[in-house]
Specification:
This protein is of the alpha/beta class. It has helices spanning 7-14, 21-29, 41-53, 59-72, 81-102, and strands at 2-4, 36-40, 74-76, 136-137. The protein has a domain at 2-79 and 126-137: 5'-nuclease (Rossmann fold), CATH 3.40.50. Helix content is 47%, strand content 9%. It is globular.
Length: 139
């Protein structure tokens, strides 16, 4: 089976203090040898953005993880037709946020700081693997 891991999973995979780190590591360790793990080039771009925004004293550590992920996982390109889907989704999200911004004063903040609205990740249409690990299978 093939698995496409999103940025959240990759971040938690390398961050020992992250919620879900142990569960993600155990899930991956229990996969069959024939299973393939991959990330998309978009995940790598998002990690690059994280590196650019890392505090100065953390840049070396984040850079090491950025390099390590490229060694640990297969890097998949994005198909050109995906750009049209991405553009439509991003536009819809921008419009939704704009509408939510107009009613922001009427809402109370969430007790946990959660920002309402859709979450887009690389596996929204995939199948969950063992609970809430967010590992997705190729469909």
């Amino acid at each position: 089976m093939k698995f496409l891991l999103d940025t959240n999973i990759i971040t938690k995979f390398y961050d020992k203090s992250a919620d879900g780190h142990i569960q993600i590591r155990e899930t991956i360790a229990n996969l069959n040898e024939s299973d393939e793990l991959a990330i998309s080039v978009l995940t790598l771009y998002e990690l690059g953005y994280g590196l650019a925004n890392a505090p100065g004293d953390m840049k070396d550590i984040v850079l090491q993880k950025f390099d390590q992920v490229q060694e640990d996982f297969l890097l998949l390109p994005l198909p050109p037709e995906g750009a049209l889907i991405f553009g439509s989704l991003k536009k819809a999200l921008k419009e939704k946020r704009s509408l939510e911004g107009n009613t922001k004063a009427q809402r109370r903040p969430s007790p946990r700081g959660h920002v309402p609205g859709p979450r887009l990740d690389s596996g929204d249409s995939g199948h969950h693997l063992r609970g809430s690990t967010d590992l997705r299978t190729e469909t």
